[in-house]
């Protein structure tokens, strides 16, 4: 999956690149099966809801600890007024994160397969380190919206280096909540950072008041993607996905890569425990605080 000069130029122009048939569908199905097994084994002694509401996210220690764990997060609409699940657990999970790629052999192999490693090399990484991974379910009827955001908000380096590698494990369409992106939006400023806070655990620091595109607005284009498509996303690119009210789920997997040659600030929310150092595509690496 080494990119052509034309593909690299398109990525640099648009801030994203859509690569159909990059990942064999059989490998996508293997990842789906493994994710379903993780959810089946998950005992929700701690209920954590993934939501775009800042207050919930910044005060949730389970979320903050997920940097070095395999953690399951529920949909915002998963529970009724008395706290009972509206649907079966299997269709109530929003995502699994954030160290799947280092703690689970199936996810490790998928994240470091040549298609992703070679795409990372093509977009200019010197010392690529896989820093975060997420399995996103986008279940039928209750799959939640992901607000318009920039990945560098959560994974800032100096200089900026984060790139997302997003894989459609099932067909992603407008009807079931595909990605939408702002072509060329990566040339705009970073709006805010999600950083550690001694009182609340973490907070958003506002950096620039330039508004992000309105969800579904004319600045955004849909990135419909058949299963097996790899989407490469620049860290400053504004992107969004809508709720899924359709009958079909939209499973996807994303791994985020930063460059070990850049400085990784000590106040980034995502901080690994010492016993779980970051690794690249071929071996261990080192972040520079």
Structure, explained:
By secondary structure, the protein is an alpha+beta fold. It has a single domain (5-259), classed as q2cbj1_9rhob like domain (Jelly Rolls), CATH 2.60.120. The chain is 20% helix and 24% strand. It has seven helices and 13 strands. The protein is globular and about 50 Å long. The two termini are 31 Å apart. 46% of the residues are buried.
Largest sheet: 7 strands, antiparallel
Shape: globular
Task: Enumerate how many helices there are, as a single number.
Answer: 7
Q: Quick one: CATH superfamily?
A: q2cbj1_9rhob like domain
Q: TL;DR of this structure?
A:
The protein is of the alpha+beta class and 289 residues long.
List keywords for this structure.
single chain; 289 residues; alpha+beta; globular; 7-stranded antiparallel β-sheet; Jelly Rolls; 4-stranded antiparallel β-sheet
